[in-house]
From TrEMBL, chain A:
It is found in: Cell membrane. It comes from Oceanomicrobium pacificus. One of its GO terms (cellular component) is plasma membrane. It comes from the Bacteria. Keywords: Cell inner membrane, Cell membrane, Membrane, Transmembrane, Transmembrane helix, Transport. It is a multi-pass membrane protein. This is Autoinducer 2 import system permease protein LsrD. The chain crosses the membrane at residues 93-116, 123-141, 161-183, 214-233, 253-279, 286-309. Part of the ABC transporter complex LsrABCD involved in autoinducer 2 (AI-2) import. Probably responsible for the translocation of the substrate across the membrane.
UniProtKB/TrEMBL annotation, chain B:
This is ATP-binding cassette domain-containing protein. Keywords: ATP-binding, Cell membrane, Membrane, Nucleotide-binding, Repeat, Sugar transport, Translocase, Transport. GO terms for molecular function: ATP binding; ATP hydrolysis activity. The keyword S-adenosyl-L-methionine does not apply. InterPro entries: AAA+_ATPase (IPR003593), ABC_carbohydrate_import_ATPase (IPR050107), ABC_transporter-like_ATP-bd (IPR003439), ABC_transporter-like_CS (IPR017871), P-loop_NTPase (IPR027417). Transmembrane segments: none annotated. Residues 6-240, 251-496 form the ABC transporter domain. It comes from Oceanomicrobium pacificus.
Automatic annotation (TrEMBL), chain C:
One of its GO terms (cellular component) is plasma membrane. Keywords: Cell inner membrane, Cell membrane, Membrane, Transmembrane, Transmembrane helix, Transport. The keyword Coiled coil does not apply. The chain crosses the membrane at residues 12-33, 45-65, 72-90, 96-119, 173-191, 221-241, 262-286, 306-323. It is a multi-pass membrane protein. It is found in: Cell membrane. The complex is composed of two ATP-binding proteins (LsrA), two transmembrane proteins (LsrC and LsrD) and a solute-binding protein (LsrB). GO terms for molecular function: transmembrane transporter activity. It holds the Pfam family BPD_transp_2. This is Autoinducer 2 import system permease protein LsrC. Part of the ABC transporter complex LsrABCD involved in autoinducer 2 (AI-2) import. Probably responsible for the translocation of the substrate across the membrane. Its main location: membrane.
Amino acid sequence: MTRLSSFATGLRSWEGFLFAALLVILAVNAALTPEFLTVANQINLFQLSIEKVIVALVMTFIIINAEIDLSVGAMMGLSACAFGWMFQNGVDARLACLVCLGIGIAGGALNGYFIAAMALPSLVVTLATLIGFRGLARVLVEDRGITDFPDWFDALGQAPMLGPLPFALIAFGVLFVFLYVLLQKTGFGRRTYVIGTNRDVADFAGIDSRRHKFILFVASGLISAFAGLLYAARVGAVRGDVALGFELDIITIVLLGGVSIFGGKGSLTGTLLSILIVLNLRNGMALMNITGHIQTGVIGLLLIGSVLAPRLRLPRFNRAAKPKEVSP
Amino acid sequence: MPEPVLSLDHVSKSFGMTHALSDVSMDLHAGEVHAIVGENGAGKSTMIKIMTGIHQPSSGAVRIDGDAVTLAGPQTARDRGVVAIYQEPMVFPDLDVAENIFISSTKEGWFQNRRDLRRKAHALIDRIGMALDVDQVASGLTLAEQQAVEIARALSQDVRVLIMDEPTAALSAHEAAQLRRVARTLAEEGVSVVYISHRLEEVFEIADRVTVIRDGQHISTRPIDETTPDGMIAEMVGREVGNYFEKAPTTATPEVLLGVRDLTLDGTYENISFDLHRGEVLCMAGLIGARRTDVALSLFGIAPATGGTVTYKGAEVRLTTPRQAMDLGIAYVSEDRRKLGLAMEMPIRDNVTLATLSRYQSRAGIIDRAAEAETAEAYRQRLNIRTPDVEIDVGMLSGGNQQKVMLAKWLNMEPELLIFDEPTRGIDIGAKAEVHDLIRDFAAKGGAVLVISSDLPEVLAMGDRILVMREGVQMGILDAADADQEKVMALATGQVRSTAPDAREGEPA
Amino acid sequence: MTRLFLRVSPQALRITGLLFVLCLVVLFFSTQVDNYLNGRLFNRISSSVAIMALIATGQTIVILTRNIDLSVGSVVGFTAFATGSLVTAYPDMGPVPLVLFAMVCGAGFGCINGALVAYARVPSIIVTLATMALFRSALVEFSDAKSITSGSLPQWLVSFPNTKLLTIGQFQLRAGFAVAVVVVVLVHILLSRFRPARRFYAVGSSPEAAEMAGINTRATVFAAFVLAGALAGLAGFMFLARFGNITVVAGLGFELKSVAASVVGGVNIFGGSGTVIGAFLGAILVDLIDTSLVRWQLVSEFWREAVLGALILLSVTVDTLLMRRLFRLRQAQEHEAAKPKPAAAGKVTKEGAA
Amino acid sequence: QTALEGGQEVDMVLLPKFLGILVFDQANEGAQEAHAELGNPGELLFVGPTPENSVAGQIEIMTTSATQGQGAVMLSNNAGDQIAPSAKAAQDAGTKVVTWDSPIPSGEGEDVFVAQVDFGSIGTVMADMAHSILGGSGQMAVLSATPDAANQNAWIASMQDALKGDKYSGIELVDIVYGDDQAEVSYNRALALVDKYPDLGVIMSPTTVGIQASAKAMQDEGLCDQVKVSGLGLPAEMVSYTMNGCAPEFALWDFRDLGYLTYYTAYGMATGQLTGELGESFTAGRMGDYTIEEDPGRPGSKRILMGPFTVYNKDNVEAAAQ
Ligand SMILES: Nc1ncnc2c1ncn2[C@@H]1O[C@H](COP(=O)(O)OP(=O)(O)OP(=O)(O)O)[C@@H](O)[C@H]1O
Ligand SMILES: Nc1ncnc2c1ncn2[C@@H]1O[C@H](COP(=O)(O)OP(=O)(O)OP(=O)(O)O)[C@@H](O)[C@H]1O
Ligand SMILES: [Mg+2]
Ligand SMILES: [Mg+2]
């Protein structure tokens, strides 16, 4: 009986809504553009935004935790530029990759320190590090563009690795499964939700929310640095503006996936569906030669519409930002 | 018979499957104090939320001066002169007290004059009889002080109907009495006062008429002098009940579980010393702001003490994090369930296992949901939590049932030392007895309990000994056997200081 | 010293602190940069901060209500362009209708944000993240790849921001800055004295409590967005007047800059506390550091952003730590004051224990 | 000498740095003109990213064009070498990649670059303008777009080369700053330069936004007598500053022609009439004959040089501004 009713609410849930939206988009795309359903195109559409969607997975944790990380794009840029700089200065590319991941951890730890230990708001801290990390990337590469990376590195981003699948896509798949289990099935995931719902309650239940937040920001820094390397490998070159402004796209994806900006609500399934929606929508529009501001505008409308539509039609939707009940 | 000021006319309200109210009617006359009583979850809060437009009735009507009205929200209700003070006080933490009182007032001019504002705020606070600095920012206020601010805010407006939902739940006897005086005065001035309380003696002291609600249904409305406490309780619970405040026999053993010596937190409290034995229930009494909660927070590692020693099972311990305290077997049930006790937007199940999550995790960290649900279900039955199933959000429960969920969370930890802050705040008489039984039962099984309570009858009934605090200072420890309300109050108000040499008895090894 | 420290209100203290930091920065750079400390510096900073000051003022109002407006940059861009188009088409238009047009245009965008946030209850960060893109898309559509150029603008408009109202030695009070100061002061007075405006604080401080207290929280939040929109519109007008050249990228990035200015100025990002004077000083501080770093020989062009990020973090940290300390000091003091004859009570307990 | 034959159907994409900027629209007009002239029954698309998303957007459109099987993509590159992998993939899919305005720095993934001017000579022209403004000696500072703008960087580098010549020994290049191609940043940077270098004589801004903002800043602060502005600008935007002496000289080329020539080149290659080999010549409609040659600035890459460009001053700016 409980099973049945939870299945029914599942269908009416936010994920259900997203799933339906995704089907519609896929159907429309397939009907309107013949190239859409080719394997190459499906891989391409993922490839084109793979770094953003990888970071979106970790961002899901952070926003569920009622925090935000605006510095992810800048960290991607910093990691890519640090790689370029080291490579240009004769450091072995393998070692350079490791150092970049180290930079990601250090940058994440910096954010984490101010947010967890000093208890400053993450919006403020990561706004400052957004500027700071980007600045450091600039310091490293100045006005240069660095290219001609080793073949194995470029191949990592550009060549298929497993069948038609490139490394980044496989990494995304593995990471998704791992993070899905982590968030949805484990105690770590539960604590992420509890802290996001009410941090004090978590602290009073013996959950170390500071440590938890610190870990999340370190993970965010690490994955952003990793994504920055993937980006460098995919485009085979770096410049000071690598991943500029990616943070807003990433946050858009996560929010569209039904993760509440106030924390405590949302899921990785939602994020995955939202990734699929955004990517397919963009790709479909691009294939129909709709680009630029119209594309951005449609995503913007979708973002607002996604929050509005269920509220207008089905007031009992399980959406994140449901109006708060006053105390019973 | 004059036209009732406000009436509910065959009102029903359901939330999905829950029928919070069915076909309830009630009249409210000018100048009367009308009490509403009922068990937790009976529908009292829902009734007043309908009166103030927070909820719309599923069927039936709200009438003001006989006209059916649609109250779109608290503002509409306020414009009609209906103002409510809720169970959980709501203040603006960033504004000072004076502004908190007048922020929504429509009687003031466009521009505010600080001096004028302060003066008026002072007058109102004085009328309630609270000592409160009107320039203080509200974020530092205790629950009681916040309550006072809310009452003052209500008084600052032209009220015709003042609704108080358990206003005294967070207040000590002294302040509660003060508040009742205010309510009476208002009624004499012609205001209709709706008064919800689980403290029946209060109801008998101030109410003119009493309405009893049970399971969302109207049971009776009678003038106060046509009813008796026992009759009222019988109507509330639907059966006869025994005496709740019967003194239970002590189960204290000589074994000291917790020894506290000269515990001090700079700027907050100082030199707290007591021993807590296995099987013993030690109550901490005091007025609001006595800093009892702060002592508890130190013992639970949240606000580590800056001086003094704590011994636990004979070994000296330093408590700096809740985790540490929990590992020792110390549990703390907070007084503020909304902010500190429960994750309101999460299901009962998740809340019950919150403090013991690691027990439900496999080696890989995967949570066994079935085991969790089983535990939650067991507590639902054992503590008689009124809910169809444990998957619904805690926020949907009534206050009393929330309290039980919070208790379940900590009992599930199987602690040896249970610190229970305001265990029966806002819970009904039936549930109160259940909680008392649980506490006694816990002690009887060898656990030690530190109860912080502002409910004097409760303190006297439950405590084996009573530690009285006043503004951060330990005024003394009384044996329950020779304690009574007067003695406790005398200590709590600072009229006398204890001479009983009880603090150092049974020096720990 | 401590006594004094405790008597001043936190807001006043925060502003004093900001002024102090401003002085420090100026002093520091005057040792590093030749010819730094003069009227010219004042003129530069004052004219360049005018636009951001207006935007930060609007942003502050929105942040006070526990919301955020990420669309201000796009609103500035659009109104600047629309106002420019209007005055190009009707060169005889006077200043008053033009300013009104800009503000109404901005307020219109604010209405869209406000309606979605307040009435449709969509979280502001989602709404304005989306409208940031939408409004700029509208600008791209509307502008049709044409730019406004200063040549096509009437002379009074182009010369307005730099009109000298008052000159004392090298120091010039220019019209653009004067407008910003007047607006900031006006809004400050409103926010601190005008009763309906106090509700911005109330709503941000505790939305539930505001609802319960019978404050129309929706209207309040709506008003905040409309005001922010109108101020962004005014900023768009100033942008047009000052730079003359408006393309589709006008105002890009202003949203984060304005949030940074507010935050550095001590406005609590979670709503409920902060002042527009603080945000104004925050905008000045950020602008001052940015401009001074360009002039600092020791720091290459490429270090500027890195240093700016570090300084923002530093100033926020210092401010937060200071305020926390103050709060604790106050608490301790109140406790001292409230304690009932502490010595005596303590002694008795000890005696009893002995 | 190939005379291009019209009438063949081939779909092509004109991809600017981003949409909403006048000069790119002008290039589109030129391309549309050539499109009509050649009677191509296929489609000429003018699609581009938004300014905030320029790099990723260009890569995305390049990739999509390959998927769609477009005949050619005409790219004003804003992504530096980052676009190379996707451009190569497009080439592999049979799409010709013709760059214009701004090339792919490494030349990888690019069939040919239609250069508006010789990147080497533009440095000399800027140096010459500075020379004439400064009267042979004085301080010059550069206000560029972003540090990532490849064509601006190339021009600045070529100017630095040119400045090594004896003729310019009196000119000192004191600083290079970036205005991010935004009016307000450029404006403030220009003023900061003046404050930083009290003896500054000219601000050279090889970007239309930068030159306009600098000129406005100098005019607003009454500094035009002291500091002149020069660089690359649009006559319509610069006319007043040239007439009042704030920006006595600046240069630019015709973007309409650039679009026109680019279209011809891309059409020729996409239809197979041009092979894209070095030395190949063809007639580009009204603009006359052009030859594919080695790009001196990028060894191994090919270019078609449009040239020349116009230096504007008091004498010709008003006519051009109409
Ligand atoms: N927003 C809601 N959604 C669903 N159910 C609700 C909601 N509010 C109240 N209920 C349910 O309605 C019933 C009545 O609750 P109400 O809060 O009115 O009780 P109460 O008499 O005030 O209890 P208490 O004394 O514990 O405060 C309860 O079963 C409660 O779970
Ligand atoms: N003057 C004050 N300023 C700031 N916070 C206070 C003040 N007084 C109390 N508090 C806080 O409020 C909470 C409860 O206060 P306290 O411990 O003084 O009361 P109590 O004795 O537990 O009384 P009760 O529980 O009946 O309210 C604690 O967390 C404490 O830190
Ligand atoms: Mg209730
Ligand atoms: Mg307490």
